[in-house]
Amino acid sequence: MEKYYLPGKDSWHNFDVVGEAYREAQVTAALGRRPRLDEEIEEVFEAFLIPEPDNPHDANAVSVRVNGHVVGYLDRDAAQVYRPILHRIAASGMVATTTARIWAVVRESWEDNQRARFFANVRIYLPEPHQILPLNNQSQANAAVLPWGGALQVTGEDKHFNHLFNYLPENSEGLVILTMHKLVQTLKNGAEKHLVEVRLDGERVGQLTSATSNHYLPTIAHAADGGKELGIWAKIKGSGLAAELVIQGARATELSDDWLNTMPTFPRLIPEAAGYEVPPAFIEEPPTRRDQRATLPATAPPSAPTTNPSGSSPVNITSKPFKGHVVVTEKDRRYSPITHRSAGVAIIIIAVIVGAMLGAIPLIGPVLFIGCMVLGIMGNIRSRKIAAVLEKERSIPDLRL
Hints:
By secondary structure, the protein is α+β, with helices and mostly antiparallel strands. The chain has helices spanning 24-31, 76-91, 161-164, 210-213, 217-225, 257-262, 330-333, 337-359, 365-395, and strands at 2-5, 15-16, 41-51, 62-66, 69-73, 94-108, 116-124, 143-145, 151-153, 173-186, 192-200, 203-207, 229-238, 243-248. The protein has three domains: 2-129, 2-Layer Sandwich (Alpha-Beta Plaits); 143-262; 330-395. The strands form two sheets. Strands 1, 2, 3, 4, 5, 6 and 7 form a seven-stranded mixed β-sheet that branches. Strands 8, 9, 10, 11, 12, 13 and 14 form a seven-stranded mixed β-sheet that branches. The longest helix is centred in the C-terminal third of the chain and has 31 residues, at 365-395.
């Protein structure tokens, strides 16, 4: 299948997948080997986002696959949000492609007679839903679209608002693909000034300054020599009063030889529709021993962690017996719940001792004493929450998506 690379900076792995705790065999296979004891492996791989309409547990399910192995899933809320986009890509005969960072380690477990246990974390790059597909549906079959690059402002778009208004999305921001063309302006002294004009579906919508034009003029000429136009991603943003365009494309000095030789065109998407025919893709996998920290799958109970669809929030595990939430780290999981509860008591004792010593200071002593007690109580509460979460994790039975 043709790859549809998600636009954006794919080196920023902003989204935690779920279910990797139940896929030790698959994660290990994707990595190519199992870590040795206390060895940490961290590598970045190309990853595919595969919709699974035939998944018996959830027809919205989206698996994350690395080297042919399912290493996790989008959480249930995110899968529902991204479903129309990823289904359209799949129905167009393509596979949504991004990058994944896999971290894995094997450590001895205090609670299991020092048996070595496997821990892993999988994060992917996943842009906002409205920053994946272009808003303009006109075929870009002859446009060699530049790889994603740094942001540069288009100038003069205010003169073409009537055309840009037709593309403004409901949420006021989205992506379009522009084409870039050489523009020659003759100055009063007869000298020529070479600029870049940008067009949206064939109509001029602005231009670049002299300084920014120089970054793209060589590539425009190179594309023309190959019989193609030069395309570039652009963010469009605005309201009923104004609109602006910001291009996001690699400059001439940033292009690889591979891109210059192939000049790939934008893949053809089927028209937007209410629903799409997506091929079955679910893989029935053998059960895997739950050897890892509790990164719960999309089918977990309501107290399981979920990731914000924007990918901006970490995976949190909420302690039910207490109000609020606490983030449990790998370091926290190295110690038993009893150890954390004991640490909470120790924090209170230390706070009382230090507070009593500081309380003897004239004038500000009482304030310092109260401050120490507040810090001690907060530390104690956090330790109790972590202990409760760890107890809850260890009571959860093996679940698979």
